[in-house]
Amino acid sequence: MSNVRNSFQLGDLSDAERAGAVRGLQLGAEHLLQVSRLQVPIEEATLERSGVASVDPAALRAAVSYDTPYAVVQHEDLDLDHDDGRKAKYLEDPMNDEAGTIGEIVAAQVRRSLGT
What we know:
mainly alpha
């Protein structure tokens, strides 16, 4: 699968801000997972169910991944036929489309952690 990333520069964070950022990253990753599940190719829903959102609090990194032997092929092969609304690039496209929303989710959680 292509390795696509979106980055948000958070700078130096207080403990409270870091806690908010971690919560925001988790919520943002869960949002991306939900949106991508609407586009993931579906036959028996095995690929859809394999999706997971995770966060590394120490590195302030979030990830969304799908874990089936055919996830990469389904994501990258633009010539495969899919049901209506389902498609290749089921994770990459939503990540790009939802980057602003995810950034807002993270920012809101940082603000909330500061009581603002």
